[in-house]
Amino acid sequence: MLSELGPPPLWKRPATLATLVRIILEQQVSLASAKATFDRLVLACDGKVTHHAILEMGQQQLAALGFSRQKARYTHTLAQQVDRGNFKIGGLSRKSDEDVRAAITDQLGMGNWTADVFLMMALLRSDLFPTGDLALVKGLEELEGKSYATADSLLARAEHWRPYRSVATRMIWQSYLHKRSKVIP
Fold first, then answer.
1. Which three-class secondary structure state does DSSP give residue 116?
2. CB neighbours (10 Å) of residue 15?
3. Tens digits of residue pLDDT in 104-133
4. Residue 163: is the preceding peptide bond cis (ω within 30°)?
5. Does residue 102 share a domain with residue 139?
6. What count of Cα atoms within 13 Å lies in the side-chain half-sphere of residue 11?
7. CA angle 37, 15, 175 (to 5 degrees)
8. Residue 185 and residue 35 in contact, taking contact as beta carbons nearer than 8 Å
9. How far apart are CA 101 and CA 129, in angstroms?
10. How far apart are CA 71 and CA 154, in angstroms?
11. How far apart are CA 22 and CA 5, in angstroms?
12. Which stretches make up the HhH-GPD domain (predicted)?
């Protein structure tokens, strides 16, 4: 795979509220659809997605931009948590993977997948393997011609890639997207 496709893209994003909002939008939808909604949000925020802008907009305006009712609620609640000082995104980079995961999954609508993607893309952590990622699961199954029915079976398979499972994840994503002639927007 490496000789055919080259090194996987880093797909780095800043460790910001905007990145968390974009990851919320990417939950269980196509990346293109999430990006289109995120781009409308950026435009509505005059280029800078902040907790103040989100709070000023409110859930109804977020929904008008294309957020589902649930994702508008998650995003608005996250902005409230940031505004109140209950969730400090800037401090996440100094925390362990486990502490970052706990801080993110404590937020409404954010689970392990959201934490894994943020850890990988925003904090550039090297040893993440987001077992809840459909593209990762399907990509690995396609590469190996084998089914992985449980998170435990995926983690067992990825064990020998430690401490660089994030690199393996990016390589599998790259292969998955290449087979579909897609790129991550």
1. helix
2. 20
3. 999 999 999 999 999 999 999 999 999 999
4. yes
5. no
6. 22
7. 65
8. yes
9. 13
10. 28
11. 27
12. 25-177
Nearest CA-CA partner of 23 in 130, 127, 96: 130
Q: Are residues 157 and 67 in the same domain?
A: no
Please, what is the end-to-end C-alpha distance for the chain in angstroms?
Answer: 22
How many residues belong to the chain?
185
Q: Which residue, 90, 15, 17, is CA-closest to 52?
A: 17
CB 119 within 8 A of CB 97: yes
Sequence letter at residue 69: R
In a domain, 9, yes or no: no
Which residue type sits at 57? M
Residue 63, number of CB atoms within 10 A of its CB? 15
| pLDDT at residue 130, rounded to an integer | 95
- pLDDT tens digits, residue range 55-77? 999 999 999 999 999 999 999 99
CA count, 13 A, side-chain hemisphere, 104: 32
Domain extent for 169: 129-179
